[in-house]
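Note to self: the last two entries modelled the partners one at a time, which told us nothing about the interface. This time every component goes in together.
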Amino acid sequence: MALLLVQTLNGLQLGIILFLISAGLTLVFGVMNFVNLAHGAQYMVGAYLAAWLIGLTGNFWLGLALTLPATLAFGLALEALIYRHLYNRDPLDQILATFGLILFIDEGVKTIWGAEPISVDTPAALAGGVALMPGLLYPIYRLALIGAGLAVAALLYLIVNHTRVGMRVRAGASNSAMISALGIDIGRLFLIVFGLGATLAGLAGALVAPILSVEPGMGDSVLILVFVVIVIGGVGSIRGAFLGALLVGLIDTLGRAFGPALLDLAMNPSAASQTGRSLTPMLIYLLMAGVLFVRPSGLFPVKR
Amino acid sequence: MNWRAVVPGFGFAALALVPLAARWGPEAYALNLATRALIFALAAMSLQFMLGCGGLVSFGQAAYLGLGAYAAAILARYGGGDLLLEAGTAIPAAALFAVATSAISLRAKGVYYIMSTLAFGQMLYFFFVSLSALGGDDGVTLDARARLAGTDWLASDRAFYYAALAALALGYLLLDRIVGSRFGRVLGAIRQNPLRVRALGFEPFRYQLAACAISAALCAVAGVLLANLNSFVSPAFMTWQRSGDLIVMTVLGGVGSLGGAILGALAYLLASELVSTYTEHSGLWIGPALVLVALRGRGLAGLVWGGR
Amino acid sequence: MKRCLSVLTALAALAFPGGASAEGKVKIGMIVTLSGPPAVLGGQIRDGFALAVKKLGGKLGGLDADIVVVDDQLKPDIAVTKVKGLLERDHVDFVVGPVFSNILQAIEKPVTASSAFLISPNAGTSNFAGKQCNANFFVTSYQNDQVHEVLGKYAQDKGYKSAFLLAPNYQAGRDALDGFKKQFKGRIADEVYTPLGQLDFSAELAKIAADKPDAVFTFMPGGMGVNLVKQYAQAGLKTIPFLSAFTTDESTLPAQKDAAVGDLGGANWAPDMDNPQSKAFVAAYEAAYGAVPATYAMQAYDTAMLIDSAIRTAGGKLSDRDALRAALKKGDFVSLRGGFKFSTNHYPIQDFYLTKVAKRADGKYETEIVERVFKDYGDSYAKDCPLK
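The predicted structure of the combined assembly is written out below.
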């Protein structure tokens, strides 16, 4: 029973990490209709900047505080140089451009910081753990991470649903041509959304730096998971991204933890082992295919 | 003069001359590189058919490449290593997989469709990774290159190059015919306005399903060739990065033109190889080049032919 | 498409600078992974080899050494093209590489069928150690199973009753657990395969805590190992002995730091190896590259020394392949490991040690030798190899 609780918490935590990265992307994708494959690379840059700034200042919180404006600046530079010229273009051109950016950023990061994985120490205030079950400490930092993710989710919910900017963002996700015609400066709105997305990617990168290794290409594998989350949730929907992320996190973690045991009950051990080995990594893709089969526009499609 | 026929004619004639030129250089290397480029051109062209003609972006195209490659590997292992037999097995296998998965994927539209093709591609990838009988992740080595109708012609690198070129040319002619046919026109119309097509009495779903199957079959042939080129098959052929590479080749060449896909694949692979002989940091050069092509729009075909 | 022809011609001219191998020169083609997260391993091999050549005054066996390094991008088909380029465009006499087993599977045939020798400074798969061994293929590292066997033997000798096994779900991961189980006869508490590239191990860690095994054995190379080791420490599980292969080495320790201290590993060498050549090597490597060398760099260094000795023994005549092969097989060089010789299958016979992660006085981290587990240990596949 304790194991189930801990594994649920683990799944929640993975979901929160995925949500932090997905939230920014789903907004950019939904509101601006922009396919930003380089979002994962921006997340990686966030992690690297955090590792570098925390090392430089010797203080986790100061480093974290500096990382956010730095990733925002990096994102806005990309926007001004490249993305701005690709709005309202064939999404395939956006894919090509942002794919090129991934190649460049991955290689650039390796050139600047080297290929070795680097790491960040857990801040002293959040080091240590609580014993949730005998023999296992649940690291406080992970609990804090869950808290931070929930706080971000709540904040985004407030901004999107209860502010003027949020209203425009929602309107943009539904019909950007219409709100442009209504005299809203769509360029400025896009800049706000994109800045928010870039900052969230950077924040996610910085927050995971103490538990995951910071290495070149770390954003690429996450990118696919994040797209899975967004599509399950429904493009452009923060609520969808949140629930999609939790669903993916929980299914993946619980499936890994208890799936093999369940299979053992159903078939002979060697067949179960073979099936388990091929099924577990497929779980989230099965989930996505299943969701799209039942709801072809995700769980929370934005009304258009 | 009919440029539509002349330009590809010149192109394929030029490609046919490559082995002659290669004799002055490091022949096996040049032929290996060129053959791999042709094989990926075939795969990119199969994607282009779905994408440009059918408006369907498949993010799981590498799965068909892998299916073809594994069909070749399995047949070779059990003594059925003949190129025609391998292709004859790979084509229906891939088409069947495409029909089964696309029947589900096609319910979704736009990015949802893209991601569900990815999902099925990933499932197949993980299946082969976990398949210890075929070496799992380490892959499986084929004893020798496939025979062709009982002869060992393909053992020569040059002959194999021409076999790949022939497959590419036949694929091009086939797809070109299909695009121009009634079927192709309906497909193109579905891309532009599915509702109107439906009103005219065509069921879009069936046409798109057929397009997926054709595309998968052609891509599987590329997979068979890829397996035989290096006598080696591994799940690395079917990662999502490979599917992404194929999309990039296609878009780089220019969406909507079959020749563009060939051009894109050749340019992408040759440029990557070229740049990496001079620097370890090829991403710093290839990346910005892709960005520039994207910013200009319409891909390389736009640069060469001046538009679609 | 017309332009395509001119582009191709231009490319051909640029891409084939080549040139026949000049007299009095030896050309080495190195194929390693230099992109993506595993780039750090390829980098160590490249640097270790370069250090040896520098020490030898830019020469190998008295001949001027010309080294061409290419990146296989961890894609087997690209690796084959690159290798053909090395063989035919650069006319290399030796191909050194690769890092990973699946690349080795793809390039072994093209290289051994040519006039060059293939020397692997890292990957050593079982098929090429056994039935498919080849006269022109040498391995200077180990047969992949051996390192896992070291830990299995240690766990067995130590009298552990149960072990929890954890590896990524791919061929090398499955081979790793099989290697461990060859030596360890105790109870397997659980055998868990995680998806390749998994970031978060909390589900597995909770399982370990629930199972309470006597020891954990894992194979988690690269970034996965960094994550696992950090999370293992954060979960407070360090009371359970952590045995691992290729999980805590000098390529990952800079990121694992204190979390890894005390973790046990198996290796054929460690930076604190007590012999003069090894001490000099570690000092020179740290001075040149600012990092502690791992076994990858050591094996690459030994590879260069092996080639040096072989060319010397063969009298500098690269054209005499039989003499060169015989000279390589002698393995007559001063290895950083101390003793080194080749078995009939051209894989090494060497000692293996239990190692432990330690923090050095200068604040850097390294693995250190605890005890010798196997002496003059050859692999079990050699008996299937037809070579004599």
